[in-house]
Every structure is written in C-alpha cells, then in structure tokens.
Amino acid sequence: MRRVILCLLWAGVLWGTACRNPVPIPVWQDLLDGNSLMGWRTWLRGLGTNDPHGVFSVTNRLLRISGEGMGYLVTAGSFRDFHLMAEWRWGRTNIHPDRVGRARDSGIFVHVTGPDGNSHDGAGAFRAGLEYNLMEGAVGDLLLIRGDAADGTLIAPSVKAETAVEADSEGWFTWAIGGPLRRLERWGRVNRCQKSPDWEDRSGFICPSGFEHPVGNWNTSEIIARGNRMEFWLNGRRVNRLEEVHPAAGAILLQCEGSEIFFRRLRIRAVRSGP
C-alpha cells in the first residue's frame, strides 16, 4: 500500500493533477512524454477544447503546433519556484493569415491564472500570465498578459526590471543590469538585452546579437522562477531578469499564434525559493 501511495503522489508531482495548490518538483521531470499530449489540455478560440484540425499533435517524439488558429496547450497543474527548460525550433511557415510575411511568433507562458480564454490579448485566445516571447529577433522579451478572473475582476500581472534609460520606438524599455528600476503592471513589455533597435515584425528577421539560432535549428529557452524573481535564458545566455513578479505561481502554457513550431523537450525541476 505504501508503494502505491508513493506512486500516486509522484504522478501528481509530475503532472500537477493531484493537488489544486502549486506542487514542488524535486528532480528534472519531462512535461512532454514524446507520444501523446498527456498532462496537457488544448484550447482554441472559437472551438474551446475541440481540435478538429490537429493543431496540436505529437509525431516522431516531437510536439508540433501548426499555427492554425489562435489558442494554446496548458498544463493541468500549477507550479512555483521552478527551472523550466524548453528545446524548440521554428517550422517552415506562418499559417494564420494575420502572420503571413511577418515574424514567426509563439510563446511560453508561466504563472498562468484564470479561466480558459480569459486574456484581453488575442480577443480571448490565451490566458492571463507572464509570457516568455518566442518571436523572430525578439526571443526572450517579457510580455505581461492581462485577463479576467471567473468573477469578472481584472487579473493584472506585474513586474519590476532594471532597464536602459531610453525606451524603444514603441515606448518599452530594454533590460539592462544596473539601470533604473521600473514597474510594469497589467500589460507591457520588457525587451531582452541586446535586442536590435531596428527590429521589424517581418519573416526572417535576424538579430545582430546572434542569440537566436537560424530558422530550422534548435534553440534552448529557460525560465527560472525563484520566489518573486524570474530570469529568462536563451541558448546559455541570460537575456532578461525580473523582480517583484506577480502572480508567483500558475500553470504553464504553450501558445499557438499563427506560426508552426516544434518542441522536442520540455522539462522542469524545483529550485529554492530564497535568493
């Protein structure tokens, strides 16, 4: 009986389905099993949990998100104080009409809260949370995604970040160690370090920093959430750092936003909540 109980507890730790509260994870655990979408739930704007066109699929141990439609995969459980690592690469094209000719676009959301389809962004295509942006030339930007709780009240994510003195052409600031500490709430963006000031939303944009690997090659993105702090890493380089992060826990979401993208690994482990 003791062995059965322990197995059930570990299953809950792995997939976050055994408890309503955030669950600590003691060792690296795969969130993708390479064969199915077990542990995940799909959501597409206008279709809900139905996926008649196979937007989300697993083939040859790769998770494919086709980009057709707007929506996401989301974990059943909630997580806090973690190190998340994702290996991903872009597909061949943008499928959604709104993204044709524009930069490939997706995202990894963490600390996701609220009901399905509650985001103000995308007219309810996503959920409120903090987004590690996956976008050509802008991988590692932080986006605040606001939304509505089940009772209609506003879910307003917030962070602080050290930034450069001057804003970019759209009024947002770039992470810079030792720079002024700025607070963002409800919505907004913190650009990753060394993001090109000439960035354009167009397909094939190449950032001079060389942080991102060319289309067709695998990239490794990491998110380290520790207490009320968070770091974004890209291919072994820290590209963003945030403080006073709110909310401090939530689900993990993989975004479908018009671009084909593949994931070959997504794993997570616990970290200490202190400094």
Name its key features.
single chain; 275 residues; mainly beta; ten-stranded antiparallel beta sheet; disordered N terminus
Secondary-structure blueprint of this entry?
Elements: H1 2-15, E1 29-30, E2 40-44, E3 56-59, E4 62-65, E5 70-75, E6 82-94, E7 105-113, E8 128-135, E9 142-145, E10 147-148, E11 154-155, E12 158-162, E13 173-174, E14 181-185, E15 188-191, E16 219-226, E17 229-234, E18 237-246, E19 251-257, E20 259-270
Parallel strand pairs: 13-15
Antiparallel strand pairs: 1-20, 2-5, 3-4, 4-20, 5-19, 6-16, 6-20, 7-8, 7-19, 8-9, 9-15, 10-11, 12-14, 12-18, 16-17, 17-18
Secondary-structure element sequence? HEEEEEEEEEEEEEEEEEEEE
The chain-level structural class is mainly beta
**Number of beta strands:** 20
Largest sheet: 10 strands, antiparallel
Q: What CATH architecture do you see?
A: Sandwich
Radius of gyration: 18 Å
Low-confidence stretches: 1-20
Rough outline: globular
CATH superfamily: Exo-inulinase, domain 1
Terminal CA distance: 39 Å
